[in-house]
Amino acid sequence: MDKLVINGGKRLKGEVTISGAKNAALPIMVSSILASGESTIQRVPELMDVMTMGKLLDNLGAGFHYEPGTAVINTAHINNHVAPYDLVKTMRASVLVLGPLLARTGKARVSLPGGCAIGARPINLHLMGLEKMGATIELDRGYVNASAKGLRGSAIYLDMPTVTGTENLLMAASLAKGTTVIENAAKEPEVVDLANALSSMGARISGAGESTIEVEGVDELRPLHYSVIPDRVETGTFMTIAGITGGEILIKGCRPEHSEALITKLREAGLEIEIESAGMRVTGPDRPSAKDIKTMPYPGFPTDMQAQFMALMAVAEGTSVIRETIFENRFMHVAELRRMGADIEIEGGVATVRGVPKLNGADVMATDLRASASLIVAGLGAEGRTTIHRLYHLDRGYERIEEKLKGLGATVERMKDAR
Ligand code: EPU
Q1: pTM of this structure
Q2: Are both 2-19+230-416 and 22-226 of the same fold?
Q3: Edge-to-edge strand order for the sheet containing 272-275?
Q4: Where are the alpha helices (DSSP H) in 257-343?
Q5: What's the rounded Cα separation, in Å, for the pair 317 and 187?
Q6: CA 2 / ligand 1 centre spacing (Å)
Q7: Domain boundaries 2-19+230-416, corresponding CATH code
Q8: How far is residue 386 CA from its own chain's centroid?
Q9: Whose CA is closest to 267, among 312, 223, 214?
Q10: CA distance linking residue 101 with residue 164, whole number of Å
Q11: Residue 16 clears pLDDT 70, i.e. is over it
């Protein structure tokens, strides 16, 4: 297992280019199942989750080939409909194959994902929506068995605007008979990107990005040739890095319109953010000021940026109240930030962060993907050496992170960990 050693306290300066969005690339890769033939997807980041999805597609009989930036998937010979436990347990996004497999082959057997570090994360809404479209769903020894003799359009209301749930239903509805209306749909940019990808395959979708999405099913879709949007969470992570190090970073190739809530909060915290044609230039203050946040579905403040924002608030002037409303257990980074000298109290879904002038380097443990990112932010801002153990979480979602950090002048090194 790898660890990352950071010698913090340097002002980071320079340019960084944002990679394709993990959470858009994964559903778009899966959408290739809906057509027969060779799909080419550009701007697919080289991440562990992408490789896991490739393995899953391979396992279904879809040929998967990756070369930096491009995934080629051949779905002419899908001959299996099982997403096994081993793959689903390492990546929950594997459940995204449920809708497309059902629509293309009439059956899917997908392992139930189970809980994970950040919460219980059920998939009841995915299943409810597919049942409404005529699928028969049975739970069998930890697996979802779904079958359908042709899906039909339906009116579906989601109790929560679930991101992957909306994506699963969008994909299934694209090949269903008749019209599907999804109410209280997720509005995340990744959902819109998937809808655009599906439209490029011949799907008829309107309203993506709004709370009501309408899908008129078609008989057949064409293979996909598409380029994924830039990653707004990677973008946000580099913004907080500029903030905590008092640095100046030009974040290239990003889409500022996908990060409005974060930009507003960071500006209020004292960061200077200029939108330029190449991207965003972010300049950190001598010391940020405390701001409260509450995570919400898009366009609210993203839960995927809560941990990194908290690291910044740990050194802010004043007290910040951070409310996590999406996942019940997304404060695993707090204990680690405390090891670095942060003064944070948690009660239920609320963290109260009393800013301290400086964090100190320490040995810390990464517990999930965004928690790892928050420890990098903290480590870069801290005085002295921080060692982040269990780095594999980070490799699920950040492409060439140490190379990018080194390019900004950071002293970071990946090493083998004896543990
Ligand atoms: N929920 C239900 N029932 C369902 C589905 C969801 O109750 O059937 C609840 C969840 O328990 C949670 C809330 O709805 O409380 C929102 O969860 P959602 O389904 O939207 O999350 P997700 O689709 O599993 C995606 C991202 C996450 C991101 C969340 C929220 C992908 C592959 N994953 O997960 O990304 O945090 O949306 O924006 O798109 C990450 O990249 O680090 C990550 C965890």
Answers
A1: 0.98
A2: yes
A3: 13-17, 248-252, 279-283, 272-275
A4: 260-268, 306-313, 333-339
A5: 34
A6: 27
A7: 3.65.10.10
A8: 25
A9: 312
A10: 15
A11: yes
Query: 163 CA to middle of ligand 1, Å?
Result: 6
Mutate to test the pocket of ligand 1, among 52, 124, 132, 162 (most ligand atoms within 8 A of CB): 162
- pLDDT score for 392: 87
> If 0-12 CB within 10 Å is exposed, 13-18 middle and 19+ buried, where does residue 141 land?
exposed
Q: Which of 101, 23, 37 is nearest to 72 (CA)?
A: 37
Name the closest-CA residue to atom 6, ligand 1.
162
Q: Is 31 in the pocket of ligand 1 (CB under 6 A)?
A: no
> Domain segments of the chain: what residues?
2-19+230-416, 22-226
Q: What is the CATH code of the structural domain delimited by 22-226?
A: 3.65.10.10
In this predicted structure, the answer to whether residue 254 has a pLDDT above a threshold of 70 is yes
Compute, in angstroms, the gap from residue 143 CA to the centroid of ligand 1: 19
69-74, strands of its sheet edge to edge: 63-67, 69-74, 38-44, 225-227
Q: Which residues are catalytic?
A: 116
Give the nearest ligand 1 atom to 167 CA.
23
User: Among 57, 51, 103, which residue's Cα sits nearest to residue 80?
Assistant: 57
Distance 164 CA to ligand 1 centre (A): 6
Q: Tell me, what's the pLDDT at 329? A: 86
Cβ atoms within 10 Å of 33's Cβ, excluding its own: 27
The predicted model gives 245-270 an average pLDDT of 98
Structure tokens at 190: 């990744």
pLDDT of residue 120: 75
What confidence tens digit (pLDDT) does each residue in 322-359 have? 999 999 889 999 999 999 999 999 999 999 999 999 99
**What does the DSSP assignment read for 79-122?**
---EE-HHHHHH-GGGGGGHHHHHHHHSEEEEE----BTTB---
Give the strands of the sheet with 363-365, arranged side by side: 363-365, 385-389, 2-7, 411-416
Contact 226, 220 (CB under 8 A): no
* 8 A C-beta contact, residue 83 and residue 109: yes
pLDDT confidence bin for 115, thresholds 50/70/90: low
Is the minimum distance from the CB of 124 to ligand 1 under 6 angstroms? yes
Q: 269 pLDDT exceeds 70?
A: yes
CB 125 less than 6 A from any atom of ligand 1: yes
